[in-house]
Amino acid sequence: MNIRILTLACALLAGVGAAAQTVYDATTIARKELNGTARFVGMGGAMGALGGDISVIGTNPAGIGIYRSNDVMTTFGYSLASTETDNAGTILSADKGRWNFDNIGAVISTKIGNVTPLRYVNFGFNYHKAKSFYRTRRAAGDLGGYTQLDVIAAQADGLTPSHWGNGNIFDNSDIGWLSALGWEGYLINPTLTDQVTDYRAQDENGNPLFLDPDGSLTTSPIGADGRPNVPAYENYDFYGNIAGEHPYLREFRSHERGGVDEYDLNVSFNVNDRVYLGLTVGIYDVDYAKYTLYNEDSEGQGGGGYQLESYNNLSGSGFDLKLGVILRPFEYSPLRIGLAVHTPVFYKLTYSTSAVLTSDYTDHVVDTYDYVDGDMWYDFHLRTPWVLNASLGYTVGSYLALGAEYEYANYSNMDFRYPEGDAMDFLNDEAGYCLKGTHTLRLGAELKPIPSFALRVGYNYATSAYKGDAYKALALNSLTTDTDFANLKSAHTVTLGVGYHTGSFYADLAYKYDACKADFYPFMAEGIQPMKAKDTRSKVLLTLGYRF
Question: What letter does residue 63 receive in the DSSP assignment?
Answer without folding.
Answer: G
